[in-house]
Amino acid sequence: MSLDLAPSESTNRAQRLTDIIMTLQRKFVLGLSKELDQGRISFPQFFLLMQIIQHKHMTMTQVAECMDHSTAAATGLVDRLEKFNYIKRMVSPEDRRKVLVSITETGRKTVEATRQKIMRGLGQFISQLTAKEQEDWLGIHEKLLAYCTKK
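Below the sequence we write its predicted structure tokens.
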């Protein structure tokens, strides 16, 4: 569904939405960064840990693609997470040339604890909305996520 808005009205809404998103993102990321294992890992590292949990294991190529990094940059990201025992590398049983990355119990516990804190924070945030507004907000975000993640 497209909106039939005059360019100036559309531009004004986009400008206002830009301001809102930047402010909200800053609030969420600041709160999240305080929680990320006392500053030992960054938001991108946390995001990667969540992706590895969802996929069970990933190749280095998959890590690079997921993070939109070069393979070299992805290797550095994995090195840092391995240093803190959040992930481990192993050789693929199907192809010994491939290295697989999987999450450790330490990494899993870190992700789960941080997710719980995020959920509590979001719970406080959405409690400002009615049940209908919460439903609408979630629906809008799911639609935007689908748009952003389609290939």
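Residues 38 and 108 are 16 Å apart (CA to CA).
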